Structure formats: C-alpha cells, structure tokens
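#onboarding

Welcome to the new folks! Below is a worked example of what a typical request in this channel looks like: someone posts a single protein sequence, and someone else replies with the predicted structure as tokens. Don't worry about understanding the tokens yet, we'll cover that in week two.

Example request:
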Amino acid sequence: MMGTMSFRAKTASYVVVITATFYTAMLIYSFVPARAEEAHAQGAAPSPRDTLFVDCPKDGKPKRILSSVALSEGDTWRAYVEVNVQSDPCLNTTQLWTGRTNHPYRLVFLIPPTRDLAGNGMEILGWARNSRMLLVKTELWQWGSDAHGKQQLLAVDASTGEVYEPELEAMLQGHKGKQCEFRISDAGFSPDKNVIILVRAKFFSAVDVGENRSGHACRPTLWHC
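Example response:
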C-alpha cells in the first residue's frame, strides 16, 4: 500500500514541504505475546538511547539489548526496541514492538543486517499527541568504517503497522553544489493535533570536520525544520 503525506518544515527563513512515502510493514501480524512480555520482564536498558548504538560483543557471545517501554498519551499504546547482536562477524538485528496496554506486543518493524551496513539500531523519540503514531530514529552503519552512518526518521502507526518516512534530503535543497551533509540532532511531533514532524539537523561538510574553517558555507549550524 503506497501513498504520500506532507510535513511542513521550517528552516531559518523559509518553509520546506517534506513529502513522506508510507507503506504497510510486512510484519504486522507477528504476534509473539509470551516472548515479548518475558523478554522485557527480564530487564530493560535504562534509556531508549541504549538501542541506537549497540557495540559488537567483545566476549564473542551474542547479546540482546532492550529499550525502556515508551507509553503514549493516556497510556493507551506502548512500544519498545529490541536489538540483537552477534559477533564474528558482527551483525545487528533491530526490532520494534508495539501493542495496546494490557494486550500482546507485536513486531511491526525489523532492520536486518546487510553486506554494506551490518550495524543498525533504533531510538524511540515519542508519540504524537492523542495518537497511535510513534516516531523513531534509526541508524545504519558499517563496522570498522569512519564514514557517517545512514539516518532515518520513521513515523509508525502502532495499530496498522504503516510506516511513514519523511524525505529528509529535501532539507539540502538550499545547499546544492556545496557538498553538504547533515546529521539529525533531534526530532519530534508538533504539540498540536496535526501529525507534523519537526526536525533539528546539523549541517556540515568534510572541510568543516577536517579543518574547521570558519565562514564555510556548511559550517556546523543547528537548523530547525
């Protein structure tokens, strides 16, 4: 199922319309009540950020990291992230579990390791107001590489499993020809009833990182979108 939805994004002095494609996750019918409930009962990581970057096991043994449970407004919906990591070679598999309170969790999103991006993780950023829409940030990277990883923002419908992905590259429209890149600093839903994603990004280039030249077109700057 394909479609589009638009998000308004303010940068400095203008408005950018970010169009997001969405699709229905293939895993929305994976109900695993006992496993999910028991796994989280065994102990969770103290913060959702613990599941964004999970190191490769140094002892050679597989490990599993769980985020804290994130509750929607009114405690109607809940969600958590699970990251499983194996070593030799180091491979991450990230899973997002959601469910109504007092109902079984179900797997709504999964990030497998790939040949070029074997590392991955996810951070829960929050729920939209009075909504079942959950915002998460993902990170994909290659172990042993100095290159910046690939970031994504995903708005997930906890009920249907539909995933909305804003086209963040639209934020670079005002930086064409300047070899700019950006990293997401923070993001969240607007406080009103509209499902608008607000993004704060830091723009930079290889020159900024290597030489820290002041006055460069892409010097580190925080932008509000």
